[in-house]
Amino acid sequence: MSNQLLAIAWLTIREAARRRLFLVLVLITVACVALSAWGFSQVRDALLSEGLDGELDAGGLTGELALTFIYAQLLILVTFMFSFILAISAVFIASPVIAGEVESGVALTILARPVGRTAYLLGKWLGIGLLVCVYAALSGIAELAVVGALTGFVPPDPLLALAYLCGQALVLLTVTILLSTRLSSITAGVACLAIFGLAWMGGIVGGIGTAIGQPTIGRVGDLSRLVLPTDGLWRGVVYHLEPREILLIVDQAGALTAAFPFVVDSPPPPSFLAWVVVWFVLVLGLAALSFRRREI
Amino acid sequence: MAVPATVTPDVAAVETVDLVKRYGRTTALDGLSMRVPAGEIFGFLGPNGAGKTTAVKILLGLAGPTSGTAALLGKPAGDREARRRVGYLPELFRYQAWLSGREVLAVHCRLAGLPRADWPSAIGSALDAAGIADRAGDRVGGYSKGMQQRLGLAVALLGQPDLVFLDEPTSALDPVGRLEMRTVLRRLRDRGATVFLNSHLLTEVERVCDRVVILDHGHVVAAGPLTDLLAERHLRVRVTGLERPAATVLDGFGTLEEADGWLELRGLDPERVPDVVAALVAAGGRVHAVEPRQATLEERFAAAVGAPTSEAEP
Fold first, then answer.
1. A-chain residues near B111 (CB < 8 A)
2. Between vectors from CA B90 to CA B305 and to CA B314, what angle results, nearest 5°?
3. Angstrom distance (rounded) from CA A47 to CA A210
4. Are B90 and A105 an interchain contact pair (Cβ–Cβ within 8 Å)?
5. d(Cα B145, Cα A1) in Å, to the nearest integer?
6. Which of A72, B24, B152, B225 has its CA 20 to 30 A from that of A206?
7. DSSP E strands: which ranges in chain A?
8. Is A110 strand, coil or helix?
């Protein structure tokens, strides 16, 4: 990896640190974790006061299993909110890094140096990507630790869930960087969020199609996952956070669960994960190509 | 374009051949051909929109030409190895406001690929040359416009580059700063570096440059060593009582203009000044004043830009 690429990545990380971005995110995260800790303890107390002797019934599950299911669903909802913070953070940190630096004249001084355009672009991607992943890991571990301590619920694969969460944020970061090689900061950020929303809707529409036995509508979800793999990666997050006993419910509910983005019956297939790798290479390659042709 | 052999080292610092740059229907550069010998202070002049900044950006690889070729230190324009030996102060620029001046320089040491052991001395000498050593620890966001320009100069001087592009380097400087800038430019030349100076301040250019190119509408309208460009003398004469029109009396001496009671004769051979006076007297004129003058760069510039057809070759 070139020295210049690492220099740009390091500069990007330092800039984020100097802009108090870390501080603000840490404060918000601490507030979120504290709030969810309070929520989980309230739910736990309420559920335990109902007793575990068969009165508690969640989707046909009873007793301990019902508790676990409820905790898992709550955790998935908190993670859903958290994934939005992460995605929006990635988009808004990334949208000004190329477009903003070109507009302000910062890029003029950097790119006159012996720095390749691709190294500059990948350095920015790497710097923000590292920031996003470190933030996701630290705050995710904090949340999981709090939930585990309060309720005793530990998801089957928390680290894999976090990895999928990071993947989702990296996808949005990559699209934002691609757009910001040609569009202004604000346009790139807004466009990326709109695409993210569309892909999310595409996943739900596709799920509904599958649930009601309409494969043509179901393919909408497949297609949106190919174009922007965020929804597919989100399903990976859900699968690794939910207890394996969830499959009992899935069996009962049949295809209907496909319509709900918070219940997943299988992990993303290896073919999808392979596509995600190819997708990153393609989109980053396109971004580099676009930026190399850009006049500064 | 012909190049005087006397000032042509083996490798030119900058060379362009028929460089064309179009943005849609707008032509920014229209066949720019020029050669900047190494080790000189070169003035790149022209009115707003003449294509100066576009040419510099093409040379540095920040923009691509539509056609034609450009070379920097003997390498194709934009070549990364050549850029390692180049310093650049853009006209409109910004450094990371959240860094201190010293940190900005450290970033550029790294980007320029300077060995880490050399950073402290490189940063120290650049700060001293630009006159901002005492503010080096302050955040750039708190710098005045003039201070930012000095920092830009320090960045451009970092690591003793062989070629330094300065785009309007004194636009935000006070008179003392401009004086210091001239000293910096001369020192650069003294150590063998080439300075490519883009400036509207013609008196500054006139004081320091060895050679200039005047650009208008994307092509060269005048070029050459400054001494040659300013060699054209003209004569101002105040005369009364001429029996025939001055244009008839002075036909064949040069180009004549009449303004405010003065005759201005351009393109006159200095040896023929007494002949002019004799002709005026012979035509009944009473000669009150005769002022031989050397052209200023400003006059040369105005003439070149105002009359693009009077193209001069270096």
1. 4, 7, 110, 113-115
2. 35
3. 34
4. yes
5. 37
6. A72
7. 57-58, 61-62
8. helix
More confident residue, B47 or B233: B47
Of A222-231, B14-23, B296-305, the poorest mean pLDDT is in: B296-305
CB atoms near residue B186 (< 10 Å): 13
Q: What is the pLDDT of residues A233-268, one digit of tens each?
A: 998 998 898 888 777 776 666 666 666 777 787 888
Q: Nearest by CB to A19, which of B60, B86, B98?
A: B98
> How many other CB atoms sit within 10 Å of the CB of residue B260?
6
Mutate to test the interface with A, among B23, B72, B80, B110 (most CBs of A within 10 A): B110
Instruction: Write the CB contacts of A31 (distance below 8 Å, at least 6 apart in sequence).
Output: none
Sign of the torsion formed by the C-alpha atoms of A184, A189, A195 and A198? negative
Rounded to two decimals, the ipTM of the complex is 0.78
Q: Which amino acid is at B92?
A: L
Instruction: Find, among A86, A89, A83, A85, the residue nearest to A16 by Cα.
Output: A89
pLDDT tens string B10-51: 678 999 999 999 998 889 999 999 999 999 999 999 888 888
Q: Which residue of A has its CA nearest to B159?
A: A113
Q: Which residues does residue B167 pair with via DSSP β-bridges, in sequence order?
A: B198
User: How far is the C-alpha of A163 from the C-alpha of A157, rounded, in Å?
Assistant: 10
Residue B258: is its pLDDT beyond 60? yes
**pLDDT attached to residue A256:** 65
First vs last Cα of chain B: how many Å apart? 7
Which pLDDT band holds residue A86 (cuts at 50, 70, 90)? confident
CA distance to partner chain B, nearest, from residue A135 (Å)? 22
Read off the pLDDT of each residue in A54-68 and give the average, rounded to a whole number: 64
Q: Which residues of A touch B88 (CB under 8 A)?
A: 109, 112
Mean pLDDT of B162-167: 94
The DSSP code sequence of A61-84 is: EEHHHHHHHHHHHHHHHHHHHHHH
Half-sphere exposure of B40 (CA within 13 A, CB side): 23
DSSP class of residue B95?
A: -
Predicted TM-score of the model (pTM): 0.82
Which residue is associated with the tokens 């500054």?
A: B204
Structure tokens at B89: 């102060």
Give CA–CA dist B99/A20, Å, rounded. Answer: 13
Contact predicate A217/A205, CB 8 Å: yes
| CA separation for the pair B31, B45 (Å, rounded) | 16
Q: At what angle do helices A21-50 and A3-18 cross, to 10 degrees?
A: 70
Looking at the partner chain, which of A15, A18, A114 has a beta carbon nearest the beta carbon of B83? A114
